Amino acid sequence: MDGTQIVGLRTYIVEDNATIRENLIGTLEELTPVVAVGVAETESEGKNWLIHNSAEWDLAIVDLFLRQGSGLGIIEACRNRDPSQKVVVLSNYATSDMRRRCEQLGADAVFDKSNEIEALVEYCVTQFPDVRPGKLTQ
Predict the structure, then answer these.
(1) Which residues of 90-99 are buried (b: 16+ CB within 10 A; e: fewer)?
(2) Does residue 33 register a pLDDT over 80?
(3) What is the layout of strands, in order, in the sheet containing 109-112?
(4) Domain annotation covers residue 24
(5) Mean pLDDT across the chain, nearest whole number?
(6) Residue 112 belongs to a domain with what CATH number?
(7) Is residue 28 in a domain?
(8) pLDDT tens-place string over residues 39-67
(9) Residue 133: its pLDDT value, please?
(10) Is residue 1 a contact partner of residue 27, using CB atoms and an 8 Å limit?
């Protein structure tokens, strides 16, 4: 490797269920170029990190129902992000109305937790084709 190649898709995950969050990170780091750079369980924590660390992430994966607040507020807070940065929703409540609302607020994609994990994996691979899959090694 020449040192200029990106070796991970810096991903911030907003999900309040620890089991789902850990399983998601494990799956994505194994099958896609995702490298988790941080997590949040609340709207305010997620918005604060994403806004104040805008140069530190490439992808944000956001659940809609959180311990405090909503993923909708996070999506809206990221509206002025760099065009290369993507915000996707991963929720059990991915109805057609909710998908439309998320896209209106600036989400790049919406995936249903129960049956669209493979689609999320494919999204991560195809949206960032220049990023190498696999975990970072020290």
Answers:
(1) bbeebeeebb
(2) yes
(3) 34-40, 9-14, 59-62, 86-91, 109-112
(4) yes
(5) 91
(6) 3.40.50.2300
(7) yes
(8) 999 999 999 999 999 999 999 999 999 99
(9) 56
(10) no
Q: What is the C-alpha separation between 130 and 126, in angstroms, rounded?
A: 9
Farthest-apart Cα atoms in the chain, separation: 46
Following DSSP, what letter does each residue of 3-15 receive, concatenated?
Answer: S-S---EEEEEE-
- 135: in domain: no
Count of domains for the chain = 1
86-91 vs 59-62, strand pairing mode: parallel
How many CA atoms does the CB half-sphere of 127 hold within 13 Å?
22
Examine residue 45 and state whether it is found in any structural domain, yes or no: yes
CA atoms within 13 A on the CB side of 138: 0
What letter represents residue 90's amino acid? Answer: L
Q: Do 35 and 136 meet the contact criterion of CB atoms below 8 Å apart?
A: yes
